[in-house]
Each structure stands twice: as C-alpha cells, then as structure tokens.
Amino acid sequence: MVKVTILGCGDAFGAAGRFHSAYLVETPQATFLVDCGPTILQALKRLRIDPERIDAVVVSHLHGDHFGGLPFLFMQYRYEAPRTRPLAVYGPPGIGARTQKLFEALYEKSAHEPMNFPLTYQELTPGTPQTLADVRVLPFAVQHVSELCCMGYRFEVDGRVLVYSGDSAWTDDFITHARGADLFLCECSTFEPEVPIHISYREIAAHARDIDCRRIVLTHLGAETLRRQREISLDCARDGMTLELAGTRQVSPRARPVAPRTDARRRPKGASRGRARRAR
Ligand SMILES: [Zn+2]
Ligand SMILES: [Zn+2]
Known about the structure:
Elements: E1 2-8, E2 22-26, E3 31-36, H1 40-46, E4 56-58, H2 64-67, H3 70-80, E5 87-91, H4 95-106, H5 108-112, E6 119-123, E7 130-132, E8 135-141, E9 151-157, E10 160-164, H6 173-177, E11 183-187, H7 201-207, E12 216-219, H8 223-227, E13 235-236, E14 242-245, H9 273-278
Parallel strand pairs: 3-4, 4-5, 5-6, 10-11, 11-12, 12-13
Antiparallel strand pairs: 1-2, 1-14, 2-3, 7-8, 8-9, 9-10
Bound molecules: zinc ion (2 copies).
C-alpha cells in the first residue's frame, strides 16, 4: 500500500488558511515528505503524525513555501524530540547550502552547532532516477522560474505511481510524465488568469482528457481557485486529505478500477477521473 497525506495544499500566500506545500508519502519501506513548507510542524501535529517517522525529504525547488520548513523540522529533531537516526534531504542543486543558510538566518546558534543526527543532502538532476528505499524517484524539469532548477517528480513503488508537478507553468510534458500514474498531484494556483510560472484551472481542465492517469488532484491552490471551487470539476486537495494508491503492474492503467480512497466520505460528488476527462 502506498498512502499519500496532503499536509499542505495552499499556495505561497496561505490562501484560505491552507498550509504550505507538503505531502507525506508512506510506502512499505519508507516514509518521506515531498516538499516541506514552513507550516510543516503545524500540519503534522494537527494530524497527530509523529515527525520522527520521516525518513527523508524530497524538495521540488528552492522557494520558501516548498523548503522553508526544513529548519523547523531540524529544531523539532534537536530539542522537542531529539533524533538519532539519519535524515536524508533530496532536492535540486544547492539544496544543502540554501537550507543551511536559511537555518542560520532563523536559528543562528543552533545552525552552527553540530547536528545530533546524521543529516545528508543529495542533489538530484532532472532525468536521473534515484532510489529511496523501495521507491524509484524520477525528477523531471518543470517550467517555473528561470533562476532556479525546478523539478516535478514521478515516484514509482511496487507498480504504484505518484506524479507531482511541483510549481510549474503548464507544459504538455505533464501528459508524458503522468502517463499510467495512479495519482497526479497537479498545482493549480489560479482559476482563470494564465500566469507564466503557474498552472490555471482552465489550462489543466483543457488538457485533462489527454492525461492518462487514474486520478488528478489539484493542489497549491490559490485564493481565486478556492473562491471558484464550485466551478471546478476535478478533485481539489484539502489539508489532511489521505489518498491510497492501489495500482498493479499486471493491468493496464486504462483498464484498472477506480482506486479505493480513504477520504470517500468527504469527497465532492462527481469528482472522478471520468468527470475530469469531460472537463474542458
Ligand atoms: Zn509554491
Ligand atoms: Zn515556486
């Protein structure tokens, strides 16, 4: 079983009080964060998830709402619940230096003291797969801002596939990356306006029928997207939402049944993939 918990699906501005980007992925052999926004500890503790369970963090890009929670996680591991086991942080080139700089800016003394647990940084390169326990991590380049290396991710574990857009403008590359995925977490910062660094609902809806995945869930939701949520016929993430991936290698993605979901009770009506395909 692979379980994804939406810890934060807000945009950089915390639209409607939603937490910054963070997703917890649990596989048979690993528990890791995908992005780690500044509200990470609030998000984990609100859901009563012990931060100690996190084996690794995978960062999409070096914007504050995606990696700014790392120093808070370190403080948790230093003082609140002292950690001894290793933590691996994966991310774009510069992940180690930028995180250390941020830690120094926020907690200068602590940042200069030796860590009480082994902390490693590993730089990832778009197109080069990496193994994290039982997970194959494939980073791919996305079109967000030119001054940073920005990545989306395709995670494969035991035939189950999770694709995450990170922050990006729309590109048809997502159709390729999300092919056969059980879940495509796609950013949707705006409803209507097309901004060059983010995806609007209009754009994703126009391409939804071409995306051959089991389920699309919109995330990184901005204020306008949330205000017009009733007009959206794709699933929208909520903080605290859990999703289970139930793929198998033997069956083609198109023929597989709809994934069981643990959030069925709160799921908006009609928010299935079939509906997604009709959305234009
Ligand atoms: Zn962002
Ligand atoms: Zn960003």
